[in-house]
Amino acid sequence: MYQSSTYCRLEEFRDILESILRRHSSQPVVLVTVPDVARWAVEVNMGVYGNPIATAILATDEMPAHIAVRSEISKDEAESVLGLLEWCGYSEEVRLFRSNPVRFAMHLVLHELAHIENEWGQAREHDCDKWAFERLPGAI
Ligand SMILES: [Zn+2]
């Protein structure tokens, strides 16, 4: 069976991702890595469209806000996101993402944080990307 190669494992970046979330969030946000985001969403009684590599849920009375990301992202999955970002004009950043998956991971969690902080729905994907790029630290 064809198995596409791994682009990144999110747990390896947990410390830096949690620190970037603390810096840019106004509330506690729990970061979870899961094998399957859609299945996780069902478990917490939330619907997601398709099977995304990441999703966000807003805080409720019972639970703080959560960001769930797929624990392992393949090169093919990363490329499908990168191609879209490139198409939206972020080709310089995408070039850095290809050689530096931690930057991709930081942008991914910042994008999800944008949904939480601004209460932007799925129709605001471009705004979330822009918000995330504005908060991405300089090249590392
Ligand atoms: Zn989004």
- The residue-averaged pLDDT reads 92
| β-strand amount | 15-25%
Number of strands: 5
Protein structure class: alpha+beta
Low-confidence stretches: none
Computed over alpha carbons, the radius of gyration is 14 Å
State the share of residues found in helices, binned by percent: 40-55%
Count structural domains.
1
Strand order of the largest sheet: 2-4-3
Alpha-carbon distance between the two ends: 36 Å
State the shape. Answer: globular
Number of helices: 6
Describe the overall structure:
This protein is α+β, with helices and mostly antiparallel strands and 140 residues long. The chain has one domain (7-135). 49% of the residues lie in helices and 16% in strands. It has six helices and five strands; from the N terminus they run E-H-E-H-E-E-E-H-H-H-H. The strands form two sheets. Strands 2-4-3 form a three-stranded mixed β-sheet, sandwiched between helices. Strands 1-5 form a two-stranded antiparallel sheet. Strand 3 and strand 4 form a beta hairpin. Helix 4 packs across helix 5 (101-118). The longest helix is centred in the C-terminal third of the chain and has 18 residues, at 101-118. The radius of gyration is 14 Å and the shape is globular. The N and C termini lie far apart (36 Å). The mean pLDDT is 92. Residues 111, 115, 125, 128 line the site of zinc ion.
Concise overview:
With 140 residues, the protein is of the alpha+beta class.
Features:
140 residues; alpha+beta; 3-stranded mixed β-sheet; two-stranded antiparallel ribbon; 6 helices; 5 strands; binds zinc ion
